[in-house]
Amino acid sequence: MSSYLKVSGTKVVDGDGKEVILRGAGLGGWMNMENFISGYPGCEFQIRNALAEVVGPIKSEFFFDKFLEYFFQEEDAKFFKSLGLNCIRLPFNYRHFEDDLNPRVLKEEGFRHLDRVIDLCAQQGIYTILDLHAAAGGQNAGWHCDAGTQIANFWLHKDFQDRTIWLWKELAKHYANNKWIAGYNPLNEPADPTHTTVIKFYDQVHDAIRSVDTSHIIFFDGNTYATDFSHFGDMHKKWQNTAYSIHDYSGYGFPASPEDYVSSDEQRQRMKKTYEKKREWMDQNGLCVWNGEWGPVYARRQYDGIATDSINERRYKVLKDQLAIYNQDRLSWSIWLYKDIGFQGMVYVSQETSYMVLLKDFLAKKHRLAVDAWGADTTQVQHIYQPLINHIAEEIPQENLNLYPFPVWKPSDRVGRLSRCILVAEYLVKEWAEHFRGKSEAELDEIAKSFKFENCLYRDGLNKILMDNAQMQSSS
Fold first, then answer.
1. Helices in 211-264 by DSSP H: which ranges?
2. Mind listing the pLDDT tens digit for each residue in 303-327?
3. Which of 189, 266, 395, 454 is catalytic?
4. What is the β-pairing status of strands 456-458 and 347-349?
5. pLDDT in tens, 183-214
6. How far apart are the first and last CA of the chain?
7. 303: alpha, beta or left, given left = phi > 0 and alpha = psi -120 to 50?
8. Choosing from 44, 98, 170, 293, which is the catalytic residue?
């Protein structure tokens, strides 16, 4: 690789000024584990602590290190490249590089797996984008911040922000000369209720990165889960070599869809209008847009039975129609996600593996209780929570119901997040960890191997759509 990628107007270009459209996926569930991706309740820090209590800290650390090793290897990179894709977004958790009880002391071992995967991708001609998915304190109220609370404390404590700026400077120093890194995504899905603190933070982290690295693109997410740039004003004039990231999930691609998706003119227009609203500020100012996350989730035969195939055919229609919109704009994008246990990934862990056999009944229970927020099917438990939703609606004045981040979180969503996905999930953490009691290192290694490429199945419908699209775009 002879040159860095850079932003030129609305485009990403190479050193010769030739447009490069980044098309790829996010490696979610790896260096930032997530409950629905990796198959556990609650947050990553909770299961790490629980497993250490059950098997001891040495065996626990061994298991999680092997998990990181097996989750993405050369075979994964080769398969990814074979689909005609050229970029992987690498989400990571700040805890790999810094401990809360030892802040601002860099953990050099955090670079080991990140360096390894960046190099594996480079060997296949795949760019990478580094994404801080979980920042100290939690930059939003999601499980993927690994904070275990509905309060985004990152915005309430300056020290969390300062530590993140320090970390990005360390990361930028480490990767400044790596030209296969397309750029840095400093903060995934910020949810700043003031709408202005996030812009001040971006200004500071931009300057910190630029003090040691003037070459890599910086990808800034919009506020409120990468959907809102309405308060950014003229700040883009201060920032060099920056692109702006939306996350463009369509409600039609999820179990709570308001109606079956049939690709009607009205449905496609509604989907396009939502997408265009998210990128409006960038279009008004002639700026570069990157879609950092998008894509449906998929039905699973063990839960959805004979309806599985028909549900997934509708989800593929959503996928195709979104791609058609993006292709019109020559948009760079990163679909969510590459690998999981069977809900959304391009490849997914086989039901016959040690991990899935060990946790089969527990995963079914977790699904029934709807303790994962992402794509939750609340059919079997809604009768439990509906009285609380009704109680709040009856007792709270209408003008006080829509707390930030409304409308991303409606009152019913808030009840679900706090009661199902935080409270009930917390009670399931120890139950998950107990499945590993008495396991030897050899057995833990075998369980971790479940996530190796050779033990995964392909989501053929999704992969064919992505590959056909890549071939069509490369020939156009």
1. 223-226
2. 999 999 999 999 999 999 999 999 9
3. 189
4. antiparallel
5. 999 999 999 999 999 999 999 999 999 999 99
6. 24
7. alpha
8. 293
Q: What residues contact residue 376 under an 8 Å CB cut-off, 6+ apart?
A: 255, 256, 370, 416, 420, 421
Structure tokens of 199? 């812009």
CB contact set of 210 (below 8 Å; sequence gap of 6+)? 240
Task: Give the residue ranges of DSSP H helices in 100-210.
Answer: 111-123, 158-175, 197-210
Structure tokens at 170: 């360390």
Tokens coding 220:
């800034």
Q: Characterize the bridge pairing of strands 181-185 and 6-8.
A: unpaired
User: Is the whole model's pTM more than 0.90, yes or no?
Assistant: yes
Strands 87-93 and 23-26: parallel
- In eight-state DSSP terms, residue 232 is -
Q: Are 437 and 54 in contact (CB under 8 A)?
A: yes
| Full DSSP string of 410-440 | -HHHHHIIIIIIIIIHHHHHHHHHHTTTT--
Establish whether 170 is a catalytic residue: no
**Residue 75 is a catalytic residue:** no
Q: For 103-261, where are the alpha helices, taking DSSP H only?
A: 111-123, 158-175, 197-210, 223-226
For 309-340, the DSSP string reads: HHHHHHHHHHHHHHHHHHHHTT-EEEES-SEE
